[in-house]
Design goal:
mainly alpha
């Protein structure tokens, strides 16, 4: 009689996502959520727009940034930028082919976050200089 060997099937790596791929996608999703959360925070932090209707009815409009919430906004944007940067690094070192996804949306989010951080930092520095 012939002896039939039972072999375990070899796991095909290309058919399922590994830990690093899942981590990169989770970081990207968390970064986008943090970005949308920062948009909501900035709605409450930024000065209000002084419309003509508001001036006509003598309604007070806040002309300054709320500094306690600005710190939280700064941290949320840093979290978003760090998460998307880490995700981009993981994608860079895990991709094996030139035709792999280039993740333009990740680069776009990173640029927006860094630009926004510069604007907030400029605001914080000018606010501290005006106090002294």
């Amino acid at each position: 009689m012939m002896k039939i060997e039972q072999r375990r099937p070899i796991k095909e790596r290309r058919k399922s996502a590994d830990f690093w791929y899942s981590l990169a996608r989770t970081l990207t999703a968390c970064s986008w959520l943090a970005f949308f959360f920062s948009v909501i925070i900035s709605f409450f932090v930024a000065p209000e727009t002084d419309y003509g209707v508001l001036r006509y009815h003598d309604i007070e409009v806040r002309q300054f940034w709320l500094t306690p919430l600005t710190g939280y906004l700064y941290l949320v944007i840093w979290f978003s930028a760090a998460g998307i940067y880490t995700s981009t690094l993981i994608d860079k070192y895990r991709s094996r082919r030139r035709s792999d996804n280039t993740n333009y949306s990740a680069y776009f989010l990173l640029i927006i976050n860094l630009f926004w951080l510069l604007i907030i930092l400029q605001h914080i520095l000018t606010t501290k200089n005006s106090v002294f």
